[in-house]
Specification:
Blueprint lengths: L2 E8 L9 H15 L7 E5 L2 E5 L6 H8 L5 E11 L2 H13 L5 E8 L8 H16 L2 E2 L6 E8 L2 E10 L11 E5 L5 H10 L4 E8 L7 H13 L7 E6 L1 H10 L5 H20 L4 E2 L12 H8 L6 E2 L7 H11 L2 H4 L21 H9 L4 H9 L2 E4 L1
Parallel strand pairs: 5-6, 5-7, 9-10, 9-12, 10-11, 12-13
Antiparallel strand pairs: 1-3, 1-4, 2-3, 4-8, 7-8, 11-14
Helix pairs in contact: 3-4, 5-10, 7-8, 8-9, 9-12
Length: 385
């Protein structure tokens, strides 16, 4: 009698060596956190695979919606487990094919257990021939309507066809912590997602100009955090009111430097938060040449204000690529919702495109903003999920 289970292949964990078991435990813990509301009896890791036993196969849609958010997951397959005997494998494959409509098919076998006498190719041939005899359908190796997957692992055979692809990468929480500068636009949520795939735990920081601007950017950010929290167990958003410091900047310096100075303020406040929370880097959604503050000269002038590494995962992406990722992960809808951004709301007609770092530092030194930073930190808000 067959038993339903879910077989999971992980992504880059397969390349790990001495510390592989540590990554596997982290991966397994993240899987447990994702499916804790769904029935299962045990989760076991062996043969570079993760097996979830005691599931309710009728709830496969719920499992797949949860599992696709586990960083480090390459794919997950709903399987039936039997003893590794070719007749039992054929029976299940025939049952699968008899209940489905298709014109083309293929059999894909992985034989981890080399004690099983038949090779992967021989299993494909034997099982495929049986299905062809019963269904009279054509084999297509490239784009089949039905792909029956067979894996032989430690004396057991796993057979299935329902498969989902994951985002890959490394298990969340397997890296260190970083501060992600989150606007309510399209780019920074995607940048955050890309870094979450690298196992980094993210703490989010958002800057707003309320009450000069409406609070929609804050609302949008909170909705975006709700989405991004699917990819890590807990998320926290720090919301910093920077209107007072913006007014000082706008009152005392040439308007063409406003946005550059705003951005330096954001970087410095983010560095203070990183120091407070023992984070190791800052993450931004900057994209070379997309807006005036993102020319190479301006990126340099802004980045110089940081005493932490600034990681820019979208630096070389085009906008279409970023939008496609945003749609895929579910943040796009909230990112395009109308809002007033704390920088673009005060954007001058002719912003500086090639700022000189020394000049910007000299202007900043005259402003004496340190006490204002402390006031902003005191008045920050927190949103946690």
């Amino acid at each position: 009698m067959s038993q339903y289970c879910i077989l999971i292949h992980y992504h880059e964990l397969a390349l790990k060596r001495d510390n592989k078991s540590w990554f596997e435990k982290k991966f397994q813990t993240n899987i447990k956190n994702q499916i804790k509301s769904l029935p299962y009896k045990s989760i076991n890791t062996y043969a570079s695979r993760v097996f979830i036993y005691g599931i309710n196969e009728k709830k496969w849609t719920y499992y797949q919606n949860k599992l696709k958010n586990v960083m480090g997951l390459k794919n997950a397959i709903l399987m039936q487990k039997v003893d590794a005997q070719i007749n039992l494998i054929q029976d299940i494959a025939n049952n699968i094919s008899s209940n489905l409509k298709f014109e083309t098919f293929r059999i894909t076998t992985k034989r981890q257990d080399k004690r099983f006498k038949l090779t992967s190719h021989e299993i494909n041939q034997i099982v495929g021939a049986e299905i062809y005899k019963n269904k009279k359908k054509s084999v297509s190796l490239k784009n089949p309507d039905l792909n029956i997957i067979i894996e032989i692992v430690r004396g057991r055979a796993f057979i299935g066809y329902k498969k989902i692809e994951g985002y890959g990468g490394l298990p969340n929480g397997s890296g260190e912590t970083a501060i992600s500068l989150l606007s309510s636009g399209i780019d920074s949520p995607v940048a955050s997602f890309q870094i979450l795939k690298r196992g980094v735990k993210l703490i989010y920081i958002h800057f707003h100009s309320s009450p000069a601007t409406n609070k929609q950017s804050i609302v949008n950010c909170q909705k975006i955090i709700n989405i991004l929290s699917n990819f890590q167990n807990e998320s926290i958003l720090y919301m910093y009111p920077i209107l007072k410091i913006q007014k000082i900047i706008m009152d005392k310096i040439n308007d063409k430097f406003w946005v550059i100075m705003f951005r330096r303020v954001m970087i410095k406040l983010s560095c203070l938060l990183a120091e407070e929370l023992n984070a190791k880097a800052l993450i931004t959604g900057e994209n070379i040449g997309q807006v005036s503050s993102q020319t190479l000269s301006n990126i340099q002038a802004i980045g110089e204000s940081s005493n932490y590494p600034i990681i820019r995962p979208l630096a070389g992406h085009n906008k279409e690529e970023i939008i496609n990722i945003a749609k895929n992960i579910g943040t796009y809808e909230y990112s395009i919702s109308p809002h007033q951004d704390c920088c673009s709301f005060f954007l001058p007609l002719h912003p500086e495109l090639k700022a000189k770092t020394d000049k910007i530092k000299a202007i900043e030194n005259k402003l004496d903003l340190d006490n204002i930073y402390l006031e902003i930190i005191k008045n920050r808000g927190i949103y946690q999920i």
